[in-house]
Amino acid sequence: MATLAALAKQVSLFLETTLGLHQRTRLRCPSVSLPTRVMTLNREPKYPNRRAYVLKLRGDAKPDALAGRLENLVTGRQREFASSRELLDSIASDLEASADQRSADPTRK
């Protein structure tokens, strides 16, 4: 509450000195009830951009014979695959590389 009152005084002083407003126009800090709960911001989104991919299937791909290319939208890394197993392996490999880069980054907590 003290910080709100101090802010109101600073704004009032600014208005008086800069805009020429007088005492009768002073701002008052209304009584504010602050919540007792603190909201925590989740720094890691549920679907981070570094895990966004473009999946391009070849024209001759079939449900039982997937073939195409997977591209990570953030890194631009592309991997071709010739089966559903290779597609999943490509995703797993990209996730492992991303995890290794994040753990080696000293600026991350």
Describe the 3D structure.
- Helix content is 36%, strand content 13%.
- It has 2 domains: 1-33, no CATH class; 49-104, no CATH class.
- With 109 residues, it is α+β, with helices and mostly antiparallel strands.
- The mean pLDDT is 78.
- The protein has helices at residues 2-19, 84-104; strands at residues 53-57, 68-72, 78-81.
- A 3-stranded antiparallel sheet has the order 1-2-3, with helices on one face.
- Strand 2 and strand 3 (78-81) form a beta hairpin.
- The protein has 2 helices and 3 strands.
Count of DSSP helices? 2
Q: What series of H and E elements makes up the topology?
A: HEEEH
Query: Looking at the structure, what is the overall shape?
Result: elongated
Number of domains: 2
Taking all Cα atoms into account, the compactness measure Rg is 28 Å
Percent of residues in beta strands: 5-15%
- The neighbouring-strand order within the major sheet is 1-2-3
What is the arithmetic mean of pLDDT? 78
Total number of strands: 3
User: Helix- and strand-based class?
Assistant: alpha+beta
Please outline the major beta sheet.
3 strands, antiparallel
Uncertain regions: pLDDT < 50 for 5+ in a row? none
End-to-end separation in angstroms reads 32 Å
In helices, the fraction of residues equals: 25-40%
